[in-house]
Specification:
The complex is a heterodimer of chains A (336) and B (512). By secondary structure, chain A is an all-alpha fold. Chain A is built from 16 helices and two strands. Chain A has a single domain, classed as ABC transporter involved in vitamin B12 uptake, BtuC, CATH 1.10.3470. Chain B has a six-stranded mixed β-sheet, with helices on both faces. The chains are: A mainly alpha (336), B alpha/beta (512). At the A-B interface, α9, α10 and α16 of A face α11, α12 and β20 of B.
C-alpha cells in the first residue's frame, strides 16, 4: 500500500514510456550513429526545459477538469509584456521585467478563469476565442515582426550548463518545479482538492469544496507557468516571436504528453512525473526524427498520431467509469 | 433488415404453441468474481418471469449476456430449442431479444415515429415515407391505447412515455423476448399502472417477459414466476401465487431477516428542537415549515418531483433560498454554500450516489476524508496516517466489504458505496448534528437496506436529527418517526408513524 516517493511520482505507466524513450535513442543510434552528440543532447534538454514548465500548468489544469487553448497565447503575450517593459524602462534589470511578465501571465490566466468559472462559458470555446484575441494582439503589437532581445543576462539563464555536461542549469530548476508540484498534488489539501474537483465537481461541491475557486486557481497557475515557459523560450531564441508558439501549439503537445502519462481527459487522475516522462518521449522523438533529416511535417504528423493514440488509451481506461455513469453521460473537462 | 423480416415470419408461425427461452449452464467470471455459476432455468411465453436477487447476485450480468453486451464463458441460451449466437447487441436484437434498460436508448431529438422505426424506416423510391411512417406508428400506439403523438420529439415526452416508446419499439421489432431492467425506478405510481397494463398486453400476446426489480410489491403484482439468484447461483424457481415476501427474502439473502421494521431498535427520547424551517421558499418549493428535534427521524414522502430533494438542498446551502428562515439550535442561519452548512453540522447524502456523492475514480480514503481535509493537515501536508485511520473506522463501523483501503469506490457494490458516504459524514472529525439522507436505499439489496434502517435509528440514538427521503412508501412510513408529505413543492400534511398507512400518506402525496 505504501509506495516510495519516487514510485508515487512516477507511476507504472512511465516504465513503458521510459522503455520507448530508450528505444527511440537506440533506433536513432542505428540510423544515424553521429546523432547522439553532446550538442544534440543539450538541444533536447533545453527543449525539455520549456515543455517541462509549460506542461506542468497544462497537466494540473487537465487533472482539475479544465483545459486552456490559449496557453501558448499567454506565453506570447507575457513575453510581449517583458519586451515592452524592457523597452519602456531603460536600465530595468531583466529579472524585474520577468516578474512583471509573470504577473501578466497570471492575469491572462485569470481572464480565462473568469470566462470559464465566473461567466460559466464553455471553456473549450471561450479559450479558443481568447487564443485568437491574444494571437491577433501579439502580432499587431510588433506589426508581425520578430524583435531581438539582446540582454546577455537573460540569454545566459537558459544557456549555462553544469560544468562540462550538456545539462543546462535551468534543467535542474525545471526538475525541481516538477517535483514540487508533484508533492503539492499528492500530499497537500490543495492537490487532493484538484483531483477531487476534476473527478466529480458536483460531489466535491456537496462535500464542501469550492470547485470554482480551485479551477480558477488552476487557470491562473496555467497562465503563470505559460509566462515562465514563454520567457524560457524567448531567452533561448533571443527574441520575441509573435507567431512562433501559436504555430507550435505546445498545449497540444503537453496534452498528448499528459495523457500518455496517465492523466485522464476526464480529469481526476494522473501524475505529473509521468506527464514529464511523456513530454521527454515526445521531445526525444521529434528531435530524433529531425536528425534523421525527416521533414517537419512528418514530426507534426507523428505528434498528432501520438495524441490520438493517447486518447484511445485513455478512452479504454475510462470506459468502465463512463459505463457506470451512463445515465447522463459524462462531459469532457473543457465542456463543463 | 433481412434478419428482422425473418424473425417476424417465424414469430407469426409459432404463435399458437408457447415459446420458451432456456438458459442452460450459464457461467461468467470477472476478475476476482464468479458473477454467474452454472445457472439453468427456462422461461415460457405468456408469462412474466421475475429475476430476483440482491445486488451482485448476477441478474444484470445475465441480462447483459442475453442482450449480447458481454460474452458468456460457458453454457447456452436457447429460444424454442434453437441455440442463439448472441455475439453483439445488434445480433441479439435481430434474434428477437429486446432489453429495456433504466437508461433510455432513444434519440431525444428525433420524433417518436423515427425512434420506433429506427433502422427500419419505410422507404418509397429512395426517400423516407413520412406519411406511411406516421400511419404505422399511430397504429402501434393505438394498439396500446396510449396518448402519444407520433410526430413530437422524444425529448418532449415524460419519462414514462419515453419508456412506452421504447417498449413499442421492442414490440415493433416483434421480439419474442422482452426484458425489463428495473423499469419502474423513474416512474410515478400512476405511470407504473400504465406500464403494467402494457406488460399485461404483451403477456397476452405470448411474449416471454423477464422482469428485474427490487420492489417486492411489484413482483407480486405483475409476475407469474420468480427465479431467485444468489451470488451468481440459481437458488429456486417459484410460482408467484404460491410464495410470499418473507420466503422470497429468505431465499435471496439465505437467512431469515424476519420483519425488518419490527426488529428495528429505535430511539424513543427526543431532545430540544435542532432544526427549524419557517416558510422556506425556493425556485421549486413554497412555504415549507417544519421542526426537527434531536434524536428524531423525519421522513419526507411524496412523488418524484414533489420538491423533497429541493427542500434539503436549500437547507444544505446547495440551492438559493428566496425567502423564509432556517434556524439551527435556535440561531437563524444562512448558508451561502454547502461548506457553511457542513461547518455548522449539517450533512447531506445526495440522491444520486454516483453523480453527486462519490468521486468514483478515487480510492475509498479520498472519498471518506473529503469534507475534513482541512482537519487532516499536518504542517503543509495531508496526514495520510490519520486519513487511513478515519477510513479504517468507517470500514469497521459499517462493515464495508473491501479488500483494501485504497480500492476505487467504482469497484464497490451500491450498498458499500452508500456506506462510504455515511462513513464520510459520521467520522470522528465531523460534528454532524443534522444528517440528511436522500434516497439512501435506492438500488440497494434487501439485506443492506435493513442495515441502513438500523443505522438511521442508531444515528437518532446518538442525538442526531435525521431527515430521511424515500420514494418507497413502506420504507419511509416504517423508518421515520414523523412523516412529512409533500406535493407540488408544498407540504400537504404530516403523520406520526403510529398513524401512518400507505393509503393515508399516498392520499396526501397525490392531493390535487
Amino acid at each position: 500500500m505504501k509506495q516510495s516517493l519516487i514510485k508515487r511520482i512516477i507511476n507504472g505507466k512511465s516504465t513503458l514510456l521510459i522503455i520507448l524513450i530508450l528505444l527511440v535513442l537506440v533506433l536513432t543510434y542505428l540510423r544515424a550513429p553521429n546523432a547522439l552528440t553532446k550538442g544534440n543532447a543539450q538541444q533536447v534538454l533545453s527543449n525539455l526545459c520549456f515543455y517541462g514548465i509549460f506542461g506542468v500548468g497544462v497537466a494540473m489544469l487537465l487533472m482539475g477538469g479544465g483545459f486552456d487553448f490559449a496557453t501558448s497565447a499567454h506565453s506570447t503575450m507575457s513575453t510581449l509584456v517583458f519586451l515592452k517593459v524592457l523597452q519602456w524602462i531603460p536600465g530595468i534589470p531583466w529579472f524585474v521585467a520577468a516578474v512583471i511578465a509573470i504577473i501578466a501571465g497570471a492575469l491572462f490566466g485569470g481572464v480565462n478563469a473568469f470566462l470559464a468559472q465566473g461567466l460559466k462559458l464553455l471553456p473549450f470555446i471561450a479559450t479558443i476565442g481568447m487564443s485568437s484575441v491574444w494571437g491577433g494582439f501579439a502580432r499587431w503589437a510588433t506589426r508581425g515582426n520578430y524583435v531581438a532581445i539582446n540582454d546577455p543576462g537573460f540569454s545566459a539563464v537558459t544557456a549555462k550548463c553544469i560544468g562540462n555536461t550538456p545539462i543546462p542549469w535551468l534543467f535542474v530548476f525545471v526538475i525541481a518545479v516538477v517535483v514540487a508540484y508533484s508533492i503539492v498534488l499528492k500530499w497537500t489539501r490543495f492537490g487532493r482538492s484538484v483531483l477531487v474537483v476534476g473527478g466529480n465537481p458536483a460531489a466535491a461541491r456537496l462535500a464542501g469544496l469550492n470547485p470554482g475557486r480551485i479551477k480558477s486557481i488552476l487557470y491562473i497557475n496555467n497562465g503563470i507557468l505559460a509566462a515562465v515557459g514563454g520567457l524560457i523560450w524567448s531567452s533561448q531564441q533571443k527574441m520575441y516571436n509573435p507567431t512562433g508558439l501559436t504555430t507550435l501549439a505546445p498545449e497540444m503537445t503537453s496534452l498528448t504528453a499528459a495523457m500518455l502519462g496517465g492523466v485522464s481527459f476526464m480529469g481526476g487522475s494522473g501524475s505529473l512525473g509521468s506527464a514529464f516522462v511523456g513530454i521527454t518521449l515526445i521531445s526525444t522523438l521529434s528531435y530524433a526524427l529531425q536528425t534523421m533529416m525527416l521533414p517537419l511535417w512528418f514530426v507534426t504528423l507523428i505528434n498528432g498520431l501520438l495524441l490520438v493514440i493517447a486518447l484511445t488509451i485513455d478512452s479504454f481506461a475510462s470506459k468502465k467509469i463512463r459505463k457506470s455513469m451512463a445515465t447522463t453521460g459524462m462531459v469532457m473537462p473543457g465542456m463543463r | 433488415m433481412e434478419l428482422e423480416q425473418k424473425t417476424v415470419e417465424t414469430t407469426s408461425g409459432a404463435e399458437k404453441t408457447a415459446r420458451t427461452l432456456e438458459f442452460r449452464g450459464i457461467s461468467k467470471a470477472f476478475p476476482g468474481v464468479q458473477a454467474l455459476d452454472n445457472v439453468s432455468f427456462s422461461a415460457e411465453g405468456g408469462k412474466v418471469l421475475a429475476l430476483l436477487g440482491e445486488n451482485g447476485a448476477g441478474k444484470s450480468t445475465l441480462l447483459k449476456i442475453l442482450s449480447g453486451d458481454i460474452p458468456r464463458d460457458e453454457g447456452e441460451i436457447l429460444l424454442d430449442g434453437e441455440p442463439l449466437a448472441l455475439t453483439s447487441p445488434n445480433k441479439a436484437i435481430n434474434l428477437g431479444i429486446s432489453v429495456i434498460y433504466q437508461e433510455r436508448q432513444l434519440i431525444p431529438s428525433l420524433s417518436v415515429m423515427e425512434n420506433i422505426f429506427l433502422g427500419a424506416l419505410p422507404v418509397r423510391s429512395g426517400f423516407v415515407s413520412y406519411g406511411q411512417l406516421k400511419a404505422k406508428t399511430q397504429e402501434l400506439i393505438d394498439e396500446f391505447g396510449l396518448p402519444i403523438d407520433p410526430t413530437v420529439p422524444v425529448a418532449a415526452l415524460s419519462i414514462a412515455h419515453q419508456q412506452m416508446v421504447e417498449i413499442i419499439k421492442a414490440y415493433r421489432r416483434n421480439s419474442p423476448v422482452i426484458c425489463f431492467d428495473e423499469p419502474t425506478a423513474p416512474l410515478t405510481d400512476k405511470e407504473i399502472d400504465i406500464l403494467f397494463n402494457l406488460i399485461q398486453q404483451l403477456k397476452e400476446q405470448g411474449k416471454i417477459i423477464l422482469y428485474v426489480s427490487h420492489r417486492m410489491k411489484e413482483i407480486f403484482q405483475i409476475t407469474d414466476e420468480i427465479v431467485v439468484l444468489k451470488d451468481g447461483k440459481f437458488v429456486t424457481k417459484l410460482n408467484t401465487s404460491e410464495t410470499n415476501e418473507q420466503d422470497l427474502i429468505k431465499a435471496m439473502v439465505g437467512r431469515d431477516i424476519g420483519d425488518t421494521y419490527a426488529n428495528l431498535s429505535r430511539n424513543d427520547k427526543y431532545g430540544d428542537v435542532l432544526l427549524e424551517v419557517n416558510n422556506l421558499t425556493t425556485y421549486a418549493v413554497h412555504d415549507v415549515s417544519f421542526k426537527l428535534r434531536k434524536g428524531e427521524v423525519i421522513g419526507l414522502a411524496g412523488l418524484v418531483g414533489a420538491g423533497r430533494t429541493e427542500v434539503v438542498r436549500a437547507i444544505f446551502g446547495a440551492d438559493a433560498v428566496i425567502s423564509g428562515e432556517i434556524k439551527l439550535e435556535g440561531q437563524p442561519v444562512k448558508f451561502a454554500s454547502p461548506r457553511d452548512a457542513i461547518d455548522a453540522g449539517i450533512a447531506l447524502c445526495p440522491e444520486d450516489r454516483k453523480e453527486q456523492g462519490l468521486v468514483l475514480w478515487a480510492p475509498i480514503t479520498h472519498n471518506v476524508s473529503l469534507p475534513v481535509l482541512k482537519k487532516l493537515r499536518k504542517l503543509l501536508f495531508l496526514d495520510s496516517k490519520a486519513e487511513d485511520d478515519l477510513t479504517m473506522n468507517a470500514i469497521n463501523q459499517y462493515s464495508i466489504k473491501t479488500p483494501t483501503l485504497d480500492k476505487k469506490v467504482l469497484e464497490l457494490s451500491g450498498g458499500n458505496q452508500q456506506k462510504v458516504i455515511l462513513g464520510r459524514w459520521t467520522s470522528k472529525l465531523m460534528t454532524t448534528k443534522v444528517l440528511i439522507l436522500d434516497e439512501p436505499t435506492k438500488g440497494i439489496d434487501v439485506g443492506t437496506k435493513a442495515e441502513i434502517y438500523q443505522m438511521v435509528c442508531d444515528f437518532a440514538k446518538q442525538g442526531i436529527g435525521v431527515i430521511f427521503i424515500s420514494s418507497e412508501l413502506t420504507e419511509v412510513i416504517n423508518v421515520a418517526d414523523t412523516i412529512i408529505v409533500m406535493h407540488n413543492g408544498r407540504i400537504t400534511g404530516s403523520v406520526k408513524r403510529e398513524e401512518a398507512t400507505e393509503e393515508n400518506v399516498l392520499a396526501l402525496a397525490m392531493l390535487e
